[in-house]
Amino acid sequence: xxxxxxxxxxxxxxxxxxxxxxxxxxxxxxxxxxxxxxxxxxxxxxxxxxxxxxxxxxxxxxxxxxxxxxxxxxxxxxxxxxxxxxxxxxxxxxxxxxxxxxxxxxxxxxxxxxxxxxxxxxxxxxxxxxxxxxxxxxxxxxxxxxxxxxxxxxxxxxxxxxxxxxxxxxxxxxxxxxxxxxxxxxxxxxxx
Length: 192
Hints:
The protein has a single domain, classed as Rossmann fold, CATH 3.40.50.2020. Helix 2 crosses helix 3. 35% of the residues lie in helices and 29% in strands. A hairpin with a 5-residue loop joins strand 1 and strand 2. It is of the alpha/beta class. The protein has a six-stranded mixed sheet, sandwiched between helices. A three-stranded parallel sheet has the order 7-9-11. A two-stranded antiparallel sheet has the order 1-2. The protein contains six helices and eleven strands.
């Protein structure tokens, strides 16, 4: 498929600067759409010129959770749009042979069970890592229906695996394609 050739070529041949610039733009788009999914209330804003404007404000009780390490690339995009949002972290690594995901670290706001969660993980391949992350969130009292997964690329298999396990979760992504770029975190952070 043409997409496979373009994304693989871009991934391999682009400079780190070009890659980060493009990834940050995609991240920002996905984050903004994720924020659009969060509950809000109407409010009146007085502009610097004294005019009243009818706008909206986010309801309290939202947070981000990044799945380390590649999910951390999405944190700045979230902070750029919502600077005071709390962000938790989960470290999950997959066994090379069995492909089973194991949780090594989880740190969340203490009241995460009362919050809407933007779960950040840029490349969704098998879905195993995200499934384990959602299980940890559920153990901390978060309902899957208040979790919005923010992803840049997803395979149909990965998205289907997550939806089968947690049908109430919302998945936002820029592309669903059988081929997902790998080593996103290494390229983004310059450790490739």
